[in-house]
Design a protein that fits this description.
The protein has about 650 residues and is of the alpha+beta class. It has helices at about 10-50, 55, 65-100, 100-110, 115-155, 285-315, 320-330, 335-340, 345-410, 420-445, 450-470, 480-490, 510-530, 540-545, 550-565, 575-580, 595-605, 605-649; strands spanning about 165-170, 175-180, 185-195, 205-215, 220-235, 250-260. About 65% of the residues lie in helices and about 10% in strands.
């Protein structure tokens, strides 16, 4: 029989098996990816909607405008939803495979985890390319259309909805108060209007018992019909007729109609105001605009520099040599500015101070204005560079999140929407904190742009490499059972033994041999308890510095477990009940903290750690004493029952 020989038939079989596995995993991932993508897209849209909820409410927008708003919003959020969907779907996919032991079967067939990742790596790489294409082609147009739509919404007048009992200022140039409103007829009662034209001096006050408010056909004006009222108007700034002795005009009317300006139609804003929107441009457009901005603001900087040279070095009557000579004389103290100022008269002193202060204020205002221009240009250039890097970094997030989600799913081996969702949220929160902080620091100029936009990827990439390495080597780094057993062992917690009657018993227990072994264990337990006084505190020197090996309890526990395993084949209920009374004994915790001597010495030197371990070991000694007592009593009960069974035979 030949072993280790690779034949063409075996290679073909393995390749066929991998192809079927690739299709199976790709199908599982694809279905989950579609579902999680729409879930992530919906969550991001709801989060995004809350930012602009004030622009939508009360504007009377039509359904087609709202449909455009949500459509462009969804297109903008697609690149952000793709990495989240990949993270969650890869976690669930390999979590389901691990939970159903399919991942174990894959590895048992000789297929490594990276081979299982192969098909999904290709798919995720294609999604990353699609994400970059989407951001570079579709995203800019969607962002520009969304920005225009949002600007139009902000400029649109609010929908007319007159409240009761409060002044309503939604109509330009008017404050309208309605005491009561009839919803069926639309009639208004107790109407009070403050109408302003140019200023408060020209204000008019209109009072009416009732009225009706209607919109004109072209929706550019409102027609207000008032009944039984009075009109008071201030005439101070108007041309008063000569000979008239009243400064205002008063009019009493039975029926009066007033036309008010109110544009309730929706008009799309001009896109010229959005020319500096970096998110609405492709990589090529951003590169061209950066060159243009650099050229423009370099020209502005040269103009400012030449202006400063002309102002400070070409002042009338003062040359550069004069300035240098004055500085040299001030340094050598051949004259003092204070002495020159002191010889002036009071009026000339005041005039000199006023001129100097005015010059300083003028220069400060000029520098503030120039600084505002240059800061605005620097901000625009940084935004364009940030957006150019962002198109690549968002595409790389797809690959990064896959190499975080897939290995974590293989390690945790928990499917469904429970644990994977929690882990996905935690990973995304960490990524969002670093990415948002880097973006803000890069936008403000505190960090370089490439550093701020890549810090999140730089932080999570080592984690992706670590998780992939651990998953490929079957690590238990995220095994919940491993950590639960570890902490139970550390804190001295243990589970209760559960032995049940077997439905099928192949071999009956050897009662006589087990009874003899249990009696022998009782004598060894008595000898050990007599030799080691477990009630007393352990010797510190022997525990941490001069440890003597003690394997008696370890041997007793191993032999006892063998007897329990043999007696578990019994059909006797009494013996099964006695077997459940046996405790799980800690066989080493009562002797020393660690196996290696240097670790015990280090624990003794670290006083808080050594004190905790010492008290823990003392607690285990006391528990061992109780366990040995229970074991001995249970042994006696089992021996008596075995004697009854053998006597009955």
């Amino acid at each position: 029989m030949q072993t280790g020989k690779v034949t063409p038939e075996s290679i073909q079989t393995i390749m066929l098996r991998i192809k079927k596995l690739d299709k199976f995993i790709a199908k599982q991932f694809g279905l989950l990816f579609l579902g999680t993508f729409f879930i992530c897209q919906f969550i991001l849209m709801m989060q995004f909607l809350w930012r602009y909820i004030d622009e939508l409410i009360g504007k009377g927008l039509s359904m087609d405008v709202l449909a455009q708003f949500f459509w462009y919003m969804s297109l903008m959020l697609v690149p952000q939803a793709l990495p989240l969907a990949i993270l969650l779907s890869s976690l669930i996919t390999f979590g389901n495979l691990g939970e159903s032991s399919e991942l174990t079967a894959i590895k048992a067939a000789g297929i490594s985890l990276m081979q299982a990742f192969r098909s999904l790596i290709v798919i995720v790489f294609i999604i990353s390319l699609g994400s970059f294409y989407f951001q570079n082609v579709v995203g800019p147009n969607a962002n520009m259309s969304f920005s225009r739509l949002l600007l139009s919404m902000k400029q649109k007048s609010p929908e007319l909805e007159i409240p009761e009992g409060v002044f309503y200022d939604g109509i330009p140039g008017c404050n309208l108060y309605v005491q009561k409103k009839d919803l069926e007829t639309g009639k208004l009662y107790g109407v009070m209007i403050y109408k302003m034209t140019d200023s408060y001096e020209d204000a008019a006050i209109i009072l009416a018992d009732s009225g009706m408010l209607q919109s004109t056909a072209e929706k550019k004006h409102l027609l207000l019909t008032l009944y039984s009222g009075e009109w008071f108007e201030n005439m101070k700034s108007q041309q008063v007729v000569r000979g008239a002795g009243v400064p205002y005009r008063r009019e009493t009317f039975v029926n009066k109609k007033i036309l008010l300006d109110f544009d309730s139609d929706f008009n799309v804003a001009d896109a010229s105001a959005l020319s500096n929107n970096a998110k609405g441009k492709s990589v090529r457009q951003i590169s061209l605009d950066i060159d243009s901005l650099n050229h423009v603001y370099d020209s502005v900087g040269r103009v400012f520099y030449n202006d400063a040279r002309m102002r400070y070095y070409s002042s009338p009557g003062i040359s550069k040599a004069d300035s240098l000579r004055a500085v040299k004389m001030a340094a050598t103290r051949t004259f003092s500015f204070d002495s020159i100022y002191g010889r002036l008269t009071a009026d000339r002193k005041l005039s000199a101070v006023d001129r100097a202060l005015g010059r300083v204020r003028s220069e400060m205002a000029d520098l503030d204005f120039k600084g505002m221009l240059t800061a605005d240009g620097d901000r625009l250039i940084r935004q364009h560079k940030i957006e150019a890097i962002n198109k690549f970094s968002v595409a790389l997030q797809c690959l990064l999140f896959f190499f975080i989600g897939a290995p974590l799913g293989a390690i945790i081996r928990k499917g469904g929407l429970g644990v994977p969702v929690i882990i996905s949220v935690l990973v995304f929160i960490v990524f969002f904190i670093f990415d948002n902080s880097g973006y803000r620091m890069a936008r403000g100029g505190m960090w370089t742009i490439w550093f701020g936009k890549t810090i999140a990827l730089a932080v999570l990439t080592p984690l992706a490499v670590f998780f992939t390495y651990k998953a490929n080597n079957d690590s238990v780094v995220f095994n919940v059972d491993f950590y639960r057993n570890f902490f139970m062992k550390l804190l001295g917690l243990r589970i209760k033994r559960a032995v049940y009657r077997k439905d099928v018993i192949i071999n009956d227990p050897g009662y006589a041999v087990d009874a003899v072994e249990l009696a022998r264990l009782n004598s060894e337990i008595d000898a050990y308890v007599h030799e080691h006084n477990l009630l007393l505190a352990p010797n510190v020197v022997k525990v941490f510095f001069k440890y003597t090996p003690d394997h008696v309890i370890e041997d007793i526990s191993e032999r006892l477990e063998t007897v329990i395993e043999d007696l578990s084949n019994t059909k006797d209920k009494i013996i099964l009940g006695c077997l459940n009374d046996y405790p799980f004994m800690a066989v080493k915790s009562h002797t020393r903290p660690f196996e290696r001597k240097w670790m015990n010495v280090a624990a003794a030197v670290a006083v808080p750690v050594g004190l905790f371990l010492y008290l823990r070991m003392w607690r285990f000694r006391l528990r061992l004493l109780r366990d040995l007592k229970v074991v001995r009593e249970t042994n006696d009960a089992v021996i008596r029952r075995i004697a009854e069974i053998n006597g009955g035979k």
